[in-house]
Design brief:
The structure is a single chain. The chain is α+β, with helices and mostly antiparallel strands. The chain contains 9 helices and 20 strands. It has 3 domains: about 200 residues, Rossmann fold (3-Layer(aba) Sandwich); about 60 residues, SH3 type barrels (Roll); about 70 residues, Translation factors (Elongation Factor Tu (Ef-tu), domain 3). The protein has a 6-stranded antiparallel barrel. Strands 6-5-4-7-10 form a 5-stranded parallel β-sheet, sandwiched between helices. The chain is globular and about 75 Å long.
């Protein structure tokens, strides 16, 4: 039975509109001006490989997004495309049956540099042009509203409650990979490839993330919350490569992405400071007490979300010795401060998963922190850690990632961190 699908796109005063009629996997009618060749008679994936004027190609992509599908074809690989050099090289390696896919995610329209984000409209165009230059299909999935519900709202609520969430890990673990793997299945791909710098290994019958060969680019921490079941359909082809070699490979292959700068993290902030963003999202500025460890009030704050453990600047206190934010106590809207010596913690409780049973592990408690040895105890909702040495500024809401050698064996959101 034939179905009609409509797509449109606009930039400023310019507008494009397309109409496609699809029977099975084939386009039987098409009103799509501005494309490089007619779309009638093409399969949905063949149409997704046709270049065109930017707005026309945007409109066709929007028309195809919800209907594109294909029977399984051996050797077909879906490649997550960010518009950068890493995903471009992954696509090049994936061969002639590859299908590129880019997620369009919500961005704060008030951010100062939305064009640099990995999920911006410009990034989508760059990803599509990379695919089309190689004669490959590219599909855009517009997941802006779902992303805002699952990731952005959780980020805002976390800060409002006095924690320090990591939105990138929630995006990977609860959102992005599930959508990408589902897309790979929809277009008949054997697997999903991404340009992340991480490896995948088999350990005790489970497929787990492991550190990349290039320690300067290793992203295993950021991928630690992706479910092992999803990893069964995922590959990281750059896990054994170094960044300089990837750029050289892109240049040798004539990929335009070889010259592109890195995309920024926390993409939905669009280059803004998170505190400014939270203020625009309506997080309240309820005043409360700033107290020392004995409970003596030293000053007032304008909202717990403005502070994170270890913060020294911006406390607005005049004290004989430097003091640091130690912890937030949301139930009383109180910020506790103290000397640097009070920042260290030895006991961490996290809500999450142990992929393997381990008694000892290396615990990484923030993306840019060094790992520290720890004793691991399973709990009903995750695990508890006793650290070999005190770690400063451990923040509830961040993610504790556990490594056995280079393999991620567990990950969980930190609930409490105590001395």
């Amino acid at each position: 039975m034939a179905v009609e699908t409509i797509g449109d796109a606009a930039r400023g005063e310019r507008y494009a509109h397309v109409r496609l009629v699809v029977d099975g996997e084939t386009i039987v009618e098409a009103a799509a001006p501005g494309m490089a060749r007619p779309l009638v008679g093409l399969t949905l994936l063949e149409a997704a490989a046709v270049p065109g004027e930017t707005l026309a190609a945007d409109a066709v992509a929007n028309a195809l997004a919800n209907v594109v599908r294909s029977e399984r074809r051996p050797g077909r690989i879906a490649v997550a495309m960010s518009g950068g050099v890493d995903s471009a090289v992954a696509l090049h390696r994936a061969g002639s049956e590859a299908v590129g896919v880019t997620l369009r995610l919500w961005l704060d329209p008030a951010g100062p540099s939305a064009e640099r984000a990995c999920c911006s409209p410009d990034a989508v165009i760059r990803a599509r042009e990379t695919c089309h230059a190689l004669g490959l299909a590219h599909v855009t999935l517009d997941l802006r509203e779902a992303f805002r519900d699952v990731v952005v709202d959780h980020f805002v609520a976390g800060y409002a409650s006095g924690t320090t969430p990591n939105p990138c890990m929630r995006c990977n673990g609860a959102f992005r990979f599930a959508a990408l793997v589902a897309f790979a299945q929809r277009v008949g791909a054997d697997s999903l490839w991404t340009g992340h710098y991480a490896r995948l290994v088999e350990r005790e019958g489970r497929r787990l993330v492991a550190r990349a060969a290039d320690p300067a680019k290793d992203q295993s921490y950021m991928l630690a919350t992706v479910e092992p079941e999803l990893l069964e359909r995922v590959e990281f082809p750059l896990g054994g490569a170094h960044k300089a070699d990837v750029r050289a490979e892109a240049a040798s292959a004539g990929l335009e992405a070889a010259r592109r700068a890195e995309s920024q993290e926390a993409c939905f902030l669009a280059g803004d400071d998170y505190r400014t963003f939270l203020g625009r999202q309506g997080v309240g500025s309820t005043q409360g007490a700033i107290v020392d460890e004995a409970g003596t009030e030293l000053g007032r704050h304008d909202g717990l979300w403005r502070f994170t453990p270890g913060q020294r600047r911006g406390l607005g206190l005049a004290t004989p010795q430097p003091v640091y934010a130690l912890r937030a106590e949301p139930e009383t809207n109180t910020l506790v401060v103290g000397p640097r010596t009070s920042l260290g913690c030895r006991r961490v409780v996290a809500h999450g998963n142990l992929h393997l049973s381990v008694g000892r592990a290396e615990a990484k408690l923030r993306y840019r922190s060094a790992a520290v040895g720890a004793t691991v105890e399973p709990t009903a909702s995750g695990f508890a850690l006793t650290l070999d040495e005190p770690v400063d500024a451990v923040a509830p809401g961040q993610v504790a990632v556990l490594y056995d050698d280079d393999v991620v064996v567990g990950a969980g959101v930190i609930e409490t961190a105590t001395g």
